[in-house]
Amino acid sequence: MTKGSPPPAAQDQRAPARPRNRRGEGPRLREEIVEAATALIVRTGSDQAVTLRSVAREIGIAAPSIYTHFPSRDAIVQAVVEEALTQLHESITAAVIAYDDPVEGLLAGCAAYVDFGTSEPARYRVLFGTPPSKPAPSTPGSADLSGLQAFQTLVDNLHACVEVGSSASTDPFADAVALWTALHGQVSLRAALPAFPWPPTDTVEQMVLRLARITKRRGPCRTPSP
C-alpha cells in the first residue's frame, strides 16, 4: 500500500466511478439521482436512507455533483414523491379509461390504487410521510389538489357515476374523500399487518360500491382497443 492511499476497506466501499456525461446528457444525471434515491427507499423501506452521500455512492459520483440538479436532500425526496404520484395517477387513469361504464371505471381505478400501494409499499409510504413542497389549495374540488391528480380522477369518476344515474351521491367530493380514506386504510393496514387473515381483495369492490353510493351497475363494458 503506497503512502497516502486509503486502506483496502475504504477502497472496497467506493462505488465504481460513473462515466462523465457527454454534452447534452445533463438531464440523464438528474434521472439517475431520482432512480438511486428511489432504489434506496425501496431497499430500506424509508426515505431516511436518502442522503447526498448515499445517493452519490449509489450512482458512483461525487456528492457535490448533485447540487447541479438538486439543492438539498429534501428536494431529491420530493422528486421521488412527484414521480410516484405521477405513476399512481397513470395507473389509475389507464384502469379507468379501459371501461365505458363509469361505475366499472371507478371500481377498476380504485383497484389500481390498492394494487399500487400493496405492490410498492415503500414508495407509497413516502407519498404521505413527506411534507408537500407547496400548501394544498383551500377550495374543495380544486383541480390541482397539490399534485394529487389521482384523487381528482376519483372525484371526476364519481361525478360521472352521478351524471348517468348510477350513484345516489349528493356530494361527490365528500364521498370521494371517504372512499380515498378507506382505500388508504386498506393499503396501510395490509402493509402493517401482513399476517392478518385478510379477506379476498374483492372486498375493495364492495367497499367502493357502498361508499360511492352506487345504485345501478350495468356490468363490465370495456372500451374497444384501438
Please tell me about this protein's structure.
With 226 residues, the chain is mainly α. The chain has helices at 8-12, 26-44, 52-59, 73-96, 102-119, 121-127, 149-163, 172-192, 203-211. It contains nine helices and no strands. Helix 4 packs antiparallel against helix 5. Residues 4-18 and 132-146 have low confidence and may be disordered.
Keywords:
single chain; about 230 residues; mainly alpha; 9 helices; about 55% helix; about 0% strand
Number of extended strands: 0
What's the helix-strand series? HHHHHHHHH
Q: Outline, from the CA principal axes?
A: elongated
Q: Stretches where pLDDT falls below 50 for ≥5 residues?
A: 4-18, 132-146
Q: Structural class per helix/strand content?
A: mainly alpha
How much is the average pLDDT? 81
Task: Estimate the helix proportion, in percent.
Answer: 55-70%
Over all CA atoms, what is the radius of gyration? Answer: 22 Å
Characterize the biggest β-sheet.
Answer: none
Distance between the termini: 66 Å
Quick structural gist:
This protein is mainly alpha-helical and 226 residues long.
What topology emerges from the helices and strands here?
Layout lengths: L7 H5 L13 H19 L7 H8 L13 H24 L5 H18 L1 H7 L21 H15 L8 H21 L10 H9 L15
Helix pairs in contact: 2-3, 2-4, 2-6, 4-5, 4-6, 4-7, 5-6, 5-7, 5-8, 5-9, 7-8, 8-9
